[in-house]
Amino acid sequence: MEKFENLSKIGQENVVMPRIIETLKRLGGRAGRNELMIEVVSNADDIPDEYAKSMRTSKNGNDYLPFQYTFNFAVKNLILAEFMIRPERSVLELTEKGRTFNLASFDAESDVRKISGPKWKENSERKQKKGKKKGSKAARNVKEFDNDDQVDEWRDQLAIALSQFTPAKFELFARLLIKNMGVTLDENIGMKLSGDGGLDGYGYLTTDDFRTARVAIQAKRWNGLVSSPEIDKFRGAMDKYNAEYGVFITTSDFTRDAIHASRVGTRVITLINGDKIADLVAKFKLHVQPVTTYVLDEYYEGSE
Predict the structure, then answer these.
(1) pTM for this one?
(2) Residues 165-284, CATH architecture
(3) What whole-number distance in Å separates Cα of residue 123 and Cα of residue 121?
(4) CATH class of the 4-130 domain in this structure
(5) Residues spanned by CATH 1.10.10.10 within the chain?
(6) 249-287 confidence digits (pLDDT tens)
(7) Which of 43, 76, 158, 269 is the most exposed place for a label (fewest CB within 10 A)?
(8) Is 235 exposed, middle or buried (0-12, 13-18, 19+ CB in 10 A)?
(9) Please, what's the b/e burial string for 131-149 (b: 16 or more CB within 10 A of its CB; e: otherwise)?
(10) Range(s) for CATH 3.40.1350.10 in the chain?
């Protein structure tokens, strides 16, 4: 089989589509879009995680994730072919067809594109007609048909801002994040700023039944993927301070081997990547303000 990175865009989408259905079944038939994409990449051996998680810079100087476009187009095709629906913003759910389909006989061309293709064309023509009335041209891109398919702009802004933090400021940010997760930070361990060669934070988590556990924190403001040796090194630091739990935070992401390494042994290490950082920033409202907006549905389209 040809390597995933050497396939055409359509060929890559065809590989991703059954992986999406398979992963969504494993997640109970319903999941958030970001969670689903992360799980697909983490568990699909035929999709290299280094390739899927690599960032590129556009001609305009903006960083983007090419695989995200592949994933979004695969999702859109599956929606148009009625394998899944979007019950609410950024949430995907399998239909009865998606839940019961035998993936052993899945063929992307006959099972999906034969159905989704005419709908892409119909929607494109409708958008072009609408664009001509407004004196503009509609283009097929990842944002064309659904506002729900758009990546939240504030997440991109957050990623850029964090990438520009100094190592010391990012460690402070990581401690703020952990503190809001319910961890009481130790005043001595891990409080030395970057370059200490040890932990970036240490604290104590008390559960509802009043049991207290020691938590070690590692924060990496990286552009590349965090590999398994970094996880092993962190586990060694956990041993030094007898930590029962570990939290590894990075602005980038983790390789598949790093994810597996985090789950080895009796002490699982919680991994927080750039996407999860954004989720937590939103949850705890860390220096962000929520904005409410509205999206018009199809009722307002057309003149009839």
Answers:
(1) 0.69
(2) 3-Layer(aba) Sandwich (3.40)
(3) 6
(4) mainly alpha
(5) 4-130
(6) 998 889 889 999 998 878 889 999 988 999 999 999 999
(7) 43
(8) buried
(9) eeeeeeebeeebeebbeeb
(10) 165-284
